[in-house]
Design a protein that fits this description.
The protein has about 475 residues and is α+β, with helices and mostly antiparallel strands. It is built from nine helices and 13 strands. The chain is rod-shaped, with a radius of gyration of 50 Å. It starts with a helix and ends with a strand.
Length: about 475
């Protein structure tokens, strides 16, 4: 059994084109076989019914002759009948057709298709017969009339019809197979072109695209989807290369400065100068540590996707705690939380989002920073605004500031310790929680607005400063 299954598996067609053609031919063959069998059976039944009707009609005519006493020893044959034999109650032949005169009475040899069969070798021919038997009362007693009708015509028509249907079915199956093979090949030609193009695309050829058929079918949509995927891969590869280049540049400068400071401190004779150099090296080390932490967090956010912690977070309490824990700031922070808002997400990442926004606001504020948390029950969102009264951002730069390592003022950002990763990390965290982060200008300066899906909004709270 296992060997048969293995052999069937090996012999089974492997290509979609061959399987489709085989399935089409098999389906058509089964339908034609059933239809041909039905046609042959109906034709056979019709012909046999006609033969039986003719034999029964002659048997009735002979029975009427016997009843009227006009029965003769030699009986004529109608068209379509092979023999007639009339037997009395004693088994003697009292009348017969010309071909059975002098022959003994026919004896039944069994039953076939619900009809009795008789030994007809006396006729000198071998073919199917349909024998009709009737009983009639005569002046001399009851007699039995046997009339045999030949099925020679029915057999011949059956054979011819079967052969014709077989030939026609074979032609139809071959035609369907050829048409299916050709149509499937034409339909799958774009798929093969897509496969060949995708196989030729390497990690450095992501700018290539698969050919898109002009038809608006599943294959065209597949090609469109493949090209959209290739565009995303190309964009992701470009971002990755740019990120690696920017990260290398960002790490190279502080490492070079750090090495210079340590080399000078190692050889400088003045202890005070060495202390200043070591202190500067420590600051650069802290900056490198912060930069590496941000890079690791970005890598984690890029690979996390939707696999994040989903737990209820009291956003109002998180905002208050984060603001109060920062200690003395270069500028005072005004906190407004009129609503009690609960969201679903990761509290550590949401705290990092607010911390990055506060760091950015403190670097650019002139006098004050304002944090406002509101719950928009109709939109089902929590709205967190972090505003500063610093210089406004040009409309053309409002998206650029969310790019990694992007700075509108490199010198100022470096002096203040900015790495160019705070806002991109904040936007990625917001997106990971199903929200958005945008920058907009206000009358007082610049506001960074975060929208997050809200879990619960409760009544008014209080204002802190």
């Amino acid at each position: 059994m296992v060997a048969l299954v293995t052999l069937a598996t090996r012999l089974a067609p492997r290509s979609v084109r061959a399987r489709t053609t085989l399935a089409a031919c098999t389906s058509v063959a089964v339908v034609l076989l059933a239809a041909s069998a039905a046609v042959v059976l109906l034709l056979r039944a019709n012909l046999e019914r006609s033969v039986e009707d003719g034999a029964r009609e002659q048997a009735r005519a002979v029975a009427r002759l016997a009843t009227d006493g006009h029965l003769t020893a030699a009986l004529p044959l109608d068209h379509g009948t092979d023999f007639v034999q009339v037997i009395d109650a004693g088994g003697r032949v009292v009348a017969a057709s010309q071909n059975l005169i002098g022959r003994p009475a026919l004896a039944p040899t069994g039953a076939r298709d619900g009809h009795r069969s008789y030994n007809l070798h006396a006729l000198g021919e071998e073919h199917h017969q349909r024998v009709t038997t009737l009983t009639a009362d005569t002046p001399t007693g009851p007699v039995t009339v046997h009339v045999g009708a030949s099925l020679r015509t029915a057999d011949a028509a059956d054979d011819v019809t079967t052969a014709a249907l077989a030939a026609l079915s074979a032609v139809l199956v071959l035609t369907v197979g050829a048409l299916t093979w050709r149509a499937t090949g034409r339909a799958l030609r774009p798929v093969d072109a897509i496969r060949a193009e995708v196989a030729a695309i390497g990690d450095r050829d992501l700018d290539r695209r698969v050919p898109e058929p002009r038809s608006d079918d599943e294959i065209a949509r597949l090609a469109h989807t493949m090209n959209a995927m290739l565009e995303r891969l190309e964009a992701a590869g470009t971002r990755q290369r740019r990120f690696i280049a920017d990260a290398s540049h960002e790490l190279r400068s502080p490492l070079a400065v750090l090495r210079t400071q340590l080399e000078v401190a190692l050889t400088h004779p003045d202890p005070d100068v060495r202390a200043d150099l070591v202190a500067g090296a420590l600051q650069d080390t802290e900056r490198l540590q912060a930069l590496s932490t941000d890079l690791l967090l970005l890598a984690r956010l890029d690979t996390t996707g939707h696999d994040r912690a989903d737990e209820p977070v009291d956003l109002t309490e998180l905002v208050r705690t984060t603001v109060r824990a920062r200690g003395p700031q270069p500028h005072p922070v005004v906190l407004r939380t009129p609503d009690e808002v609960t969201v679903t997400g990761n509290p550590l990442w949401l705290g990092r989002l607010l911390t990055n926004l506060l760091d950015n606001a403190q670097r650019h504020a002139r006098q004050s920073v304002t944090v406002t948390l509101l719950g928009d029950a109709e939109a089902g969102q929590a709205v967190l605004d972090v505003a500063n009264d610093g210089p406004r951002i040009d409309p053309g730069d409002r998206e650029k500031i969310f790019e990694r390592f992007a700075r509108l003022d490199d010198a100022r950002s470096r002096d203040d310790g900015g790495s160019g990763l705070g806002l991109p990390i904040a936007r990625d965290i917001a997106a990971l929680h199903g929200g958005t982060l945008t920058a907009r200008d206000t009358a007082a300066g610049t506001t960074f607005r975060t929208r997050l899906p809200v879990g619960l909004v409760r009544g008014p709270s209080r204002e802190d400063s």
